[in-house]
């Protein structure tokens, strides 16, 4: 671990892209409290089919780009 001088050891560090991609696939958020904050004072509103399809298209496109990038890299 890198020592930042007098900074505390539990200092917040921005997650890297790999961690963010994994969190997106696992449907977790930026922090362990993300789900608590999203649910505070709100009721769950279901997405309609059009919204779900748009989300699925984005996920498919991202997965396709990831496969293409892996093939390109090696």
From TrEMBL:
Keyword Zinc-finger in record: no
Keywords from the UniProt entry: Metal-binding
Keyword Metal-binding: yes
Name of protein: RabBD domain-containing protein
Highest taxon of the lineage: Eukaryota
GO biological process, one term: intracellular protein transport
One example GO MF annotation: metal ion binding
Source organism (scientific name): Gryllus longicercus
Recorded GO CC terms: presynapse
UniProt xrefs under InterPro entries: Rab_BD, Rabphilin/DOC2/Noc2
